[in-house]
UniProtKB/TrEMBL annotation:
Protein name: Peptidase A1 domain-containing protein
Source organism (scientific name): Pisum sativum (Garden pea)
Domain named Peptidase A1: residues: 99-408
Keywords: Aspartyl protease, Glycoprotein, Hydrolase, Protease
GO biological process: proteolysis
Recorded family membership: Belongs to the peptidase A1 family.
GO molecular function: aspartic-type endopeptidase activity
Length: 413
């Protein structure tokens, strides 16, 4: 599960910016492996096994949260003047698969590292020194996708943001959770203290930000093995990154709180694979979502088997390693591996749009001298997932007003 974190200020008494100029906010996003979290000497193999397990729990929960709301649109006469932009970093140096942003919560502000997660709509802060009174009515008891859970209270808060022109802005009536209890091995600590939910539902962070600032947001995930000094951005408004090709746009399915895409097929080496169309049909309990909170790409077996078979046809001469690497079925010694020998993998979206990730996004580094095909299988029906490793080195832009998903290759700088 990859997480993105953003520096925000949550307060009951916020203030507006002082002028009407277009504005942009920047916050630092840091990968969970960042050494500032105390993880300098982590074991990469164990870290990957951990996020494979968290991804599994996450997908199981996705199947319980169905409810397509296609056709959602914002008011055409809404006034959008301001933008904000949050600096993001990979957490490779902390040996976890998440991305983080620093957030200040409360009055006076208390700094936390929050997970920027498009698969969750509720923003939650854990390990706070203060929570609402027991008499307050809004109690929650939540099970998370990594198998952990937490209880506490949630309510409506104001999130204040630092705009790039030096001004201040605020988001009012954002639903945010608060808890003192962290249960069942949840991976958050007092320093990595919560989630910034970037999924879409009424009252969510994205809902409030799209009303106040801009109806589209974008993020560009640097290579997941990048060190913490390599930055990218989460932006509400127009992204400020250099693209390596033109933006491509396809239809967005609001599979609340998830962001779904209309998949028409997958090809490997220019050959369309034989995958039943129902695999991509949300109404048939299938479909595919783009999820920054899941690390690896996950495919139902009817898609997983032909994809893996087609890719392994080009890996007949590699030396396989034993199958003790979680759900990753095909791993091999990387010595002598030539990425140029791999066929192109292409996801075909509605409108003839093609997403062709680089080889490093589907033949991933697992550990020292070991590479694996970066897919995990989903048994039975369910939603397939384009995880954050598959999304890396691309700008992704989601517009909740136009119902579009756009993307383009980028170095994210």
């Amino acid at each position: 599960m990859t997480l993105l974190l953003i520096q925000l200020i949550v307060a009951h008494n916020s203030y507006e910016d002082e002028n009407g100029d277009d504005e942009t906010l920047s916050l630092e996003l840091v990968h969970r492996h960042d050494s500032r979290f105390g993880g300098d000497d982590v074991d990469q193999v164990e870290a990957i096994k951990g996020f494979i397990q968290r991804d599994l729990f996450r997908r199981e929960q996705m199947d319980h949260r169905k409810g397509i709301n296609q056709g959602h649109h914002r008011r055409k006469d809404m006034e959008v003047k301001k933008e904000f932009q949050m600096s993001m970093h990979s957490g490779r140096d902390y040996a976890v698969g998440e991305y983080f942003v620093e957030v200040e919560v409360g009055t006076p502000g208390q700094s936390f590292w929050l997970v920027a997660d498009t698969g969750k709509d509720l923003s939650g802060v854990f390990s706070l020194s203060y929570c609402p009174n027991n008499s307050d009515p809004c109690l929650f008891d939540i099970s998370y996708a990594d198998g952990s859970s937490a209880t506490g209270y949630f309510g409506v808060e104001t999130i204040s943001v630092n705009l790039t022109n030096g001004g201040k802005g605020k988001l009012e009536n954002v639903t945010i959770g608060c808890t003192l209890s962290v249960l069942n091995g949840i991976t958050f600590t007092e320093n990595t203290g919560g989630i910034l939910g970037l999924g879409f539902t009424k009252g969510s962070f994205v809902d409030r930000a799209s009303l106040k600032y801009n109806t589209k947001f974008s993020y560009c995930l640097v290579d997941h093995l990048s060190h913490r000094n390599v930055s990218s951005y989460l932006t509400f408004g127009n992204p400020k990154v250099k693209l390596l090709d033109e933006m491509k746009t396809t239809e967005l399915f609001l599979y609340q709180p998830f962001y779904g895409v209309n998949v028409t097929g997958i090809s490997v080496g220019r050959e369309m694979l034989k995958i039943p169309p129902t695999v991509w049909d949300f109404q048939a309990e299938g479909g595919m979502i783009i999820d920054s909170g899941t690390t690896l790409a996950a495919l139902v077996l009817e898609a997983y088997d032909p994809v893996v078979e087609a890719l392994t046809n080009s890996l007949k001469h590699v030396k396989r390693v034993d199958k003790s690497l979680g759900d990753l079925d095909f791993c091999f010694e990387s010595e002598g591996f030539d990425p140029s020998s791999m066929p192109s993998l292409v996801f075909h979206f509605g409108g003839g749009v093609k997403f062709a990730p680089p080889v490093k996004s589907y033949v991933i580094d697992f550990g020292p001298n070991v590479k694996c095909l970066g897919f995990v299988p989903i048994n039975g029906t369910g939603v397939s997932v384009i995880g954050n490793i598959m999304q890396q080195s691309h700008l992704w832009q989601i517009d909740v007003y136009q119902n579009t998903v756009s993307f383009a290759p980028s170095r994210c700088g």
